TrEMBL record:
Its EC number is 2.7.3.9. This is phosphoenolpyruvate--protein phosphotransferase. It catalyses: L-histidyl-[protein] + phosphoenolpyruvate = N(pros)-phospho-L-histidyl-[protein] + pyruvate. Keywords: Cytoplasm, Kinase, Magnesium, Metal-binding, Phosphotransferase system, Pyruvate, Sugar transport, Transferase, Transport. Residues 17-164 form the GAF domain. PANTHER family: PHOSPHOENOLPYRUVATE-DEPENDENT PHOSPHOTRANSFERASE SYSTEM, PHOSPHOENOLPYRUVATE-PROTEIN PHOSPHOTRANSFERASE. The keyword Amino-acid biosynthesis does not apply. It is an enzyme of class 2 (transferase). One of its GO terms (molecular function) is phosphoenolpyruvate-protein phosphotransferase activity. InterPro entries: GAF, GAF-like_dom_sf, PEP-util_enz_mobile_dom, PEP-utilizing_PTS_enzyme, PEP_util_C, PEP_util_CS, Phosphohistidine_dom_sf, PTS_EI-like. Belongs to the PEP-utilizing enzyme family. GO terms for cellular component: cytoplasm. GO terms for biological process: phosphoenolpyruvate-dependent sugar phosphotransferase system.
Length: 761
């Protein structure tokens, strides 16, 4: 059964359209189960009706035309219950409804199983027989297993836009709405620009070519270039490999010389797709053919086809202007998995908003977007991104919603939010030079998280009182080798001078997990529980000592350096790191530098550090809670995994109680406490953190004015009353909803989000 399931899944995955995938499913399932009927009904996302999309055994002409209401018939019963329905005689069941025009009246036995993806019923897979009989447990188990395997495939196929055409031939003004995760607040209205990594066939979007002739010419030139590459490689290696091994290159050349392959790609271009999109369609189809073959040798040819497809694509992309080169006006950048490096390729004045199919609100690109004030939605797993190039779009970074083909009415509503945001910005500007002080005189330090040189002016312009977190991995990531001690000293000096005399907290190198250095790869099955943060640098003293020496040298004459150690999980790590820092300080002093011993602190990011907070507090000068990682580890949720992004809640009761517990455990230890995760930059989170007793909040420079505006409108007593009301709550949503109600009653809701947003959610 396993091999049969694998073959069916491979065929469906390689299908060129949703309809083709459905036809494969009904044909193969009917044959595999020896049933007389196999049908697939899919849920229309707009009406929630169950549409008969494909069938073998019923009237094929009915496919795509007939449907059942969401409360009508056995099919909808399967969907409502989200579990199988297995009947010996379907006609006698009270929920039976004859769908006229299908020809199903003669079929008695019925087995329907739901197709579920991310808790959402996408449709129902049905098999039927004329005779009265109950499908046995093995048949039911097979269909359930197949349905679970195919759910993701169908969901991905739907995400290419296939469901758009079910209810509307003209998408313009249709307000197609998709849900993701709010990544960075704000609203963006504009056209989408779909971006993709180089030489990756799987993520190439479809695009209408400006000139079919030019696309055909580019394809032929790329084909010839790859032929030349293969011949050069074969010639260069001819002295070092056997004739059998040389034959591989001959196979490549034969595939490239196969006129049918090129002809298929040209045909796809002539049908209205650009060369990279046509190449993707044909290559993936040929890969699927080879992968289904029984012969192991022939199956391996799929790898050859994939390799050649990437080579051709690489040459095509040399000819194709990049998205950045084509930009003439600001756009909303859309991609399957946006990264910080991708964002860095775009001039900021050309970026209106960001949408990423993968990732969560605490992905690094989302953090960077918040720092730059770019409205962002992450984890939009159902977005048909490959079909959205140059499509009108609205990004709602407050609610995590995306609208494609928006109507004039929805555009007008969101334009009002944009206008209100501009008004709020001017109000925030007036607070720049004022302290963050509550109405009853309680002072809170507002610091910034930085990583780039450009952050200095942006942070100072917004009233930052210092740096709560400088991410040293950024200068490490943009090089092709480890920066030297002298290079690091220069980089850190710029940050320390830029903010002097205000304190600058520099975190030691924090790589591993989802942060990789191209020249120092760390490959692990479970990287977030592996070699990262302080574990890496203590294992490589040459890296750690060079970095600490560079930090201390950079502080000469300024004396505003604070050093922070990431990912601390036990006391021994702190003891070892402190000894090394003292040694580095002594060495720098001996060299004649005018330095003082910097304050040293630790990050509280893992549960073990929460429960050893008292002991850690007795060893260091300050402690900073990294709420992003702490949330991840407390909830066992990978913050970059879109499958579980909906489980990542910064307002989870366990997270709030852990934060409050840290304050309780460190009372009387004389240690300063701060929070430097994204929770600190959320005004609702800032209120609660302040009420708990934290001295300092550190956030992106974009979040700082809003947080200051809110805290200056409240008393500490009000904040503590809010904390008392939400700490006993057991649901994350209840915490956020209660906080929104409380800030509304306190008269500060409009400072947190424009008033119009609530009506649109």
């Amino acid at each position: 059964m396993l091999s049969l399931l694998r073959r069916i899944t491979q065929e469906v995955t390689a299908a060129q359209s949703l309809q083709a995938a459905l036809e494969i499913i009904v044909r193969r399932v009917r044959r595999a189960m020896r049933s007389e009927v196999c049908s697939i009904y899919l849920v229309d996302p707009n009406t929630q009706d169950y549409i008969l999309m494909a069938t073998r055994g019923l009237n094929a002409d009915a496919a795509g035309k007939l449907s059942l209401k969401s409360d009508e018939g056995l099919v909808s019963l399967v969907g409502r219950r989200a579990e199988p329905v297995n009947l010996e005689d379907a006609h006698v069941h009270p929920a039976f409804h004859y769908l006229s025009g299908t020809g199903e009246e003669r079929y008695k036995s019925f087995l329907g199983v739901p197709i579920i993806h991310h808790r959402q019923v996408l449709g129902v897979l049905v098999v039927q027989h004329e005779e009265r009989r109950r499908f046995d447990e093995g048949e039911e188990a097979f269909l359930i297993t197949l349905s679970a395997q195919l759910a993701g495939v169908i969901a991905h196929a739907e995400a290419t836009g296939a469901m758009m055409s079910l209810t509307s031939n003209t998408p313009a003004g249709s307000d197609f709405r998709y849900k993701g995760v709010a990544g960075s607040s704000g609203v963006a209205i504009g056209k989408a620009a779909v971006i993709f990594p180089p030489a990756d066939l799987d993520v190439i979007p479809d695009r209408v070519p400006q000139s079919v002739e030019a696309e055909v010419e580019d394809f032929y030139q790329a084909l010839e270039a790859v032929r030349g590459d293969i011949k050069k490689v074969s010639s260069r290696l001819s002295q070092h490999i056997s004739d059998d091994e040389k034959a591989l290159f001959d196979v490549y050349l034969k595939i490239l010389d196969d006129n049918s392959l090129a002809a298929e790609i040209i045909k796809k271009i002539e049908e209205g797709n650009w060369a990279p999109g046509a190449l993707r369609q044909v290559i993936k189809l040929h890969i699927s053919f080879f992968e289904q073959m029984e012969d192991p040798y022939l199956r391996e040819r799929a790898t050859d086809i994939r390799d050649l497809g990437r080579r051709i694509l690489s040459h095509l992309q040399e000819k194709t202007p990049s998205v950045t080169e084509e930009l003439t006006e600001p756009v909303i950048i859309v991609g399957e998995e946006l990264t910080a490096s991708m964002l860095g390729e775009f001039p900021l004045d050309k970026v209106k908003g960001l949408v990423s199919v993968m990732g969560s609100s605490s992905s690094h690109v989302a953090i960077l977007a918040r720092a730059m004030g770019i409205p962002t939605v992450m984890g939009a797993v159902d977005l048909p991104y490959s079909k959205l190039d140059k499509v009108d779009m609205i990004v709602d970074g407050y609610s995590g919603q995306i609208f494609t083909y928006p109507s004039e009415a929805i555009i007008d509503s969101y334009q009002q939010i944009v206008d209100e945001e501009r008004q709020l910005e001017s109000e925030y500007e007036q607070l720049k030079d004022l302290p963050c002080e509550t109405l009853d005189g309680q002072r809170i330090g507002l610091y910034v998280n930085t990583g780039l040189l450009a952050d200095i002016n942006r942070s100072l312009d917004r009233g930052a009182e210092g740096v709560g977190l400088y991410r040293t991995e950024v200068p490490f990531m943009i090089r092709d080798r480890f920066p030297t001690e002298a290079e690091q000293e220069q980089i850190y000096r710029q940050q320390l001078e830029g903010f002097a005399p205000a304190p600058v907290t520099i975190r030691t190198l924090d790589v591993g997990g989802d942060k990789a250095l191209p020249y120092f790869p760390i490959k692990e099955e479970n990287p977030f529980l592996g070699w990262r943060g302080i574990r890496v640098t203590l294992d490589h003293l040459e890296i750690f000592m060079a970095q600490i020496r560079a930090m201390i040298k950079a502080s000469a004459g300024l004396h505003n350096l604070k050093i922070m150690l990431p990912m601390i999980s036990n006391v021994a790590e702190v003891e070892e790191a402190l000894a090394l820092i003292r040694r580095a300080y002594a060495e720098v002093k001996e060299e004649g530098y005018d330095v003082v011993m910097p304050q040293v602190g630790v990050m509280i990011e893992v549960p073990s550090a929460v429960y050893q907070a008292k002991e850690l507090a007795g060893m260091v000068d300050f402690m900073s809670v990294g709420s992003n990682d702490l949330t991840q580890y407390l909830l066992a949720v990978d913050r970059n995994n879109s499958r579980v992004a909906n489980l990542y809640h910064t307002f989870h009761p366990a997270v709030l109680r852990a934060l409050a517990d840290i304050v309780e455990r460190t009372k009387g230890e004389g240690v300063k406490l701060s929070v430097c995760g994204e929770l600190a930059g959320d005004p609702l989170g800032a209120i609660l953190i302040m009420a708990m007793g934290y001295n300092t909040l550190s956030m992106s420079s974009t979040s700082l004015p809003k947080v200051k505006a809110v805290l200056r409108k409240l008393t500490m007593e009000q904040a503590q009353d809010m904390l008392r009301q939400v700490l006993p709550l057991v649901h994350s949503d209840a915490v956020r909803q209660t906080m929104m109600k409380l800030v509304r009653e306190a008269g500060v809701e409009r400072l947190i989000r424009p008033s119009k947003t609530a009506a649109l959610q």
